[in-house]
Each structure stands twice: as structure tokens, then as C-alpha cells.
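Section 4.2 – Deliverable D4.2 (structural model, holo form)

The reporting period included a commitment to supply a predicted holo structure for the target in complex with FE2/S2 (inorganic) cluster. Inputs used:
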Amino acid sequence: MAQIASDRQWIDVAARDDLEDDDVIKVEANGKSIAIFLVEKKYYAIDDGCTHELASLSEGYLEDTVIECPLHQGAFCIKTGRALHAPAEEPVNTYDVEVKDERIFIRV
Ligand code: FES
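Output (C-alpha cells):
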């Protein structure tokens, strides 16, 4: 069953300094592995797990707002979670991100 937005909580997951521009880190929050990106001074968060098979998207290749899976080169939009390139077909979940007092929070 899909989790509705109002059930989500803001969770402190990293320091702002943990991410450089055009960078990605993997964090754990509420039992989920989540990839957080900083691209052109904007933060994005998606599920770290590829929807095709078992691979960590934070270990993939980031170009602009597209992350390429390291295993079979499927690709996802980090803004929308949409699968952009086969063999990935199903989207990944996206999460809201906020920065406050030099800390990064995601709503999970
Ligand atoms: S595991 Fe990501 S494209 Fe296959």
C-alpha cells in the first residue's frame, strides 16, 4: 500500500557539507536506503535501489539530473523518479528535501 505524504516524517540524515555540487550520497532513513543529490544548488532524494534489479543508484553515473544505474545502465530522472532508459521501466520513489541549520532533512 502506498504511503501518503501526511504519514511521512522529516528526518535529519546528513550535514550540508556531506554533499558537494553534482554529487550523490546514500543515507538510511526509516529503514529505507535513499540517494540524495545536489545538482546546481538544488537537493533531490530518490530510493537508492534500482527498480530493475539489485543495484545502488548512488553508485551510478550522474549527469545533470539523470542517474544511470551502475549495473545495466538503466536511467532515472532524479527530479521525478521516472525511468528514462531501459531496462529500467518502473519509477523510483521521490522524497522532499529541506536544508535547515546546515543539516539535510528528507521527508520519509
Ligand atoms: S539493476 Fe539497474 S538497470 Fe538493471
